[in-house]
Amino acid sequence: MTTRTQARACLHVQNMERVYRRACKACTATKRRCTKEIPSCLRCTTKGLSCSYPATRQIESSSLETITGLQETIAPLDVDQDYLFLDVDFNSVESILPTSDLYIMPFEDPYVSNELTPASDKLWFVTNDSWHIGHLGPGHGLEYIGEESLEVYVATVQGWFRQWTTDNTCPLIHRQLYQKHMPRCIQDAFTALNSYLNKTPATQKVVLQIIEDRARDLIYSYATQGPVVLPLLEHLARVQALLTYKLICLFDGDIRLRARAEAHELTLTSWDSLLWQRTTEEMTAGNLPSLSPYPPVPLTPWKAWCVVESIRRTCLTVRILQSVYATMRDGAAACPGGVVCTFGAGLWEAGNEREWRQRANGKRMFMQSLSVREWLGNEDPGSVDEFGHAVLLVTCGLERKGNWTDNGSASRRIREAGAGHRSPTDEFSRRYTT
């Protein structure tokens, strides 16, 4: 161990307040994992519970000596480079180590200040009423939006998946989603999609065969597992993977692939429903998702939102895309149902916790997707993100959406006359309304 590392490790021990914090009383009573944050843990914040901790106990000096002595026996660790990347489930560590000899301090994200998580700041994106699938009531039928609008929506979603292969993010798949753990099924889908987008006339036949085989293998792999409980992230990954294959197969133009995709429709619908059901159960129980199954590390509110919002958007897109295809094939389709999503501009693009919180304090537009037509005449197009624009397109049609974006752009140009500013929404409008 280097002198510099020893010094920093000793300083860490000296600065420990000689206090060991147990799980809060609410988490202990329900036998749930506690993140041990001050003044309120994540579960109590989510559930709106009063969070209180048992009386703390002093660490005996002999215990501190044990920790100090361990410095010479533990394998060298470059504190400067490695300590940010250690994924430790502290509750699991407590259960296997003798607490009389070693005290584990609660994990804190070095980029997140405790003052950013007050007990009064409820997690607005996991409220119980936000998991209801909405449907149009009697007398509120779907608008006829025309085949051109449907084709533009399909092209928009195809563009998102193309963006995923180049930018590692798109309006359906957040860049934080698979940073720690990328399930094998979504790895296969990513590489197959890359092969498809870069195919040549000479490689087209073999690439299409790969797509067909990967889709079949994906379904078969889970069919042979039997009834198993999947981690939430794997539930999401397999839906996104099958959606990737289905998007290719339905709209490539190959008759064989299209027939295969139609045969997989029930599987995708079933997986989508299971994903939504599992997410609803976990969130209403106050269990925030994890980005890694080994071990599952509690997430900050921002990263939890990244997972939850990816689930919401994926489930909604599966429903819309299947309804769009049925309409293009048969001339009509039932209402796919609506999902509560976050449509406010800028939240999806936030690069860290603090930036996300600042934008979330503005216009979140956390609302039912069936209600997006309310934006027409009431909201500026620039306040809605790209995913929201696509949902509005398939809800109200190309013409009405184009009028809305044109009017919003004109109003903004008047307000910003002489500033030489062009909004990203103008570019989106120009791409999909001309």
Automatic annotation (TrEMBL):
<dbReference type="InterPro" id="IPR001138">
    <property type="entry name" value="Zn2Cys6_DnaBD"/>
</dbReference>
<dbReference type="Pfam" id="PF00172">
    <property type="entry name" value="Zn_clus"/>
</dbReference>
<keyword id="KW-0539">Nucleus</keyword>
<keyword id="KW-0862">Zinc</keyword>
<feature type="domain" description="Zn(2)-C6 fungal-type">
    <location>
        <begin position="23"/>
        <end position="53"/>
    </location>
</feature>
<feature type="region of interest" description="Disordered">
    <location>
        <begin position="407"/>
        <end position="434"/>
    </location>
</feature>
<keyword id="KW-0805">Transcription regulation</keyword>
<keyword id="KW-0804">Transcription</keyword>
<feature type="compositionally biased region" description="Basic and acidic residues">
    <location>
        <begin position="413"/>
        <end position="434"/>
    </location>
</feature>
<dbReference type="InterPro" id="IPR036864">
    <property type="entry name" value="Zn2-C6_fun-type_DNA-bd_sf"/>
</dbReference>
<dbReference type="GO" id="GO:0000981">
    <property type="term" value="F:DNA-binding transcription factor activity, RNA polymerase II-specific"/>
</dbReference>
<keyword id="KW-0479">Metal-binding</keyword>
<protein>
    <recommendedName>
        <fullName>Zn(2)-C6 fungal-type domain-containing protein</fullName>
    </recommendedName>
</protein>
<dbReference type="GO" id="GO:0008270">
    <property type="term" value="F:zinc ion binding"/>
</dbReference>
